[in-house]
Structures are given as C-alpha cells and as structure tokens.
Design goal:
103 residues, mainly alpha, 77% helix
C-alpha cells in the first residue's frame, strides 16, 4: 500500500507544474502563431511597407497627370503640349516634321 500512496502523492504534487507548463505552452504558441501574434505582426508590417511603396508610386503618377492636365486647361493652354498630344493621339504630322516620342 505504501507504493500506491507514494505514487499518488507524487502524482498530486506533479499536477500543478504540468498545468503551469501547459498554460505557458498554450500562451507561447498563441503569442507566436495567433491572430495577433508575432507572425501576424510581421506579415502586417510587410504588407504596410508594400502598400506604402505602391501609394508613393501612384501618387507620383497622379502628380504627373495633374501637371499635364493643368497644361491643357484653357486658362493656361500650352500650345506645344496641345500640338504634342494632337500628334500623338491622331498620328498626324506635317511633311518635314521630326517626331521624337517620349514615354
């Protein structure tokens, strides 16, 4: 009987540490892999960086287009820009013209 009693006493004493280790393991796993864990934070940080780069690219393109549209407005019509766009869109040039197309 004393062997059974010793086993029971040691197993009861081991229950608290086992529960603590299980809780620590559970929280450690979710701190890494959970919805708000370190891996999710890293993915979101990379996604934010990529999105900011795309935003900078689109913003630069928008500024370029706004500048070009501003040159075509009636209040500040640039004759050279108008002629360039007409030649580019219609494909019409005068004999003897040399056309150097950018972009």
């Amino acid at each position: 009987m004393s062997a059974v009693r010793e086993i029971r006493r040691h197993s009861l004493a081991a229950i608290v540490p086992v529960i603590c280790f299980a809780a620590i393991g559970y929280f450690a796993y979710h701190a890494m892999e959970g919805e708000h864990g370190i891996n999710a934070y890293t993915r979101l940080t990379l996604q934010i960086r990529d999105t900011r780069a795309a935003l900078a690219e689109v913003t630069a393109e928008r500024q370029t287009l706004e500048h070009r549209v501003g040159l075509l407005r009636a209040s500040g019509l640039d004759a050279d820009m108008l002629e360039e766009q007409g030649k580019k869109i219609l494909g019409l040039i005068k004999p003897g013209d040399r056309v150097i197309l950018g972009r």
